[in-house]
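Input structure tokens:
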């Protein structure tokens, strides 16, 4: 029996600088702008599952009505961020610097903890004008939402005869 679970996660970027290299993987860039922000969110899979992570993008609610700056690239790591970022392991393709990704075919993510890291750019306390968009004077990501959906399918659909 196929069961699909979708989870929507919403959070906003803040002024604090929080980007780090994890398991040798540097933070993603956004349209050639170096990411200075990171949001860490974790989830648990209780069974081997097909997983799809889609970034939600609302042209009416995010920065500048531009997908270039309105979306946040993400990385997926195996492990639980609250156990320490040094415990996370890269997942590899298609989970590096993605906006939407899914396990290919009937390949399953195994049970356990996973962490999604979303990246953004913008001002910091020490550099309040960093990454300010010149034409509008607006900070790229600070205060804007970053939302994605996780769809979990515990088994492959059976053959249709």
């Amino acid at each position: 029996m196929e069961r699909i679970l979708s989870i929507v996660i919403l959070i906003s970027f803040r002024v604090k600088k929080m980007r780090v290299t994890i398991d040798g993987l540097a933070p993603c860039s956004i349209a050639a702008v170096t990411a200075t922000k990171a949001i860490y969110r974790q989830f648990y899979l209780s069974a081997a599952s097909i997983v799809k992570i889609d970034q939600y993008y609302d042209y009416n609610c995010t920065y500048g009505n531009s997908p270039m700056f309105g979306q946040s690239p993400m990385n997926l790591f195996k492990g639980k961020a609250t156990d320490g970022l040094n415990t996370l392991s890269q997942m590899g393709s298609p989970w590096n610097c993605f906006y939407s990704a899914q396990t290919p075919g009937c390949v399953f993510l195994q049970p356990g903890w996973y962490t999604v890291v979303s990246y953004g750019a913008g001002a910091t306390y020490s550099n309040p004008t960093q990454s300010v968009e010149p034409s509008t004077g607006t900070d790229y990501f600070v205060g804007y939402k970053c939302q994605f959906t996780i769809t979990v399918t515990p088994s492959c659909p059976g053959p249709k005869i």
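Residues 1-6, 8-12, 59-69 have pLDDT under 50 and may be disordered. DSSP finds one helix and ten strands in the chain.
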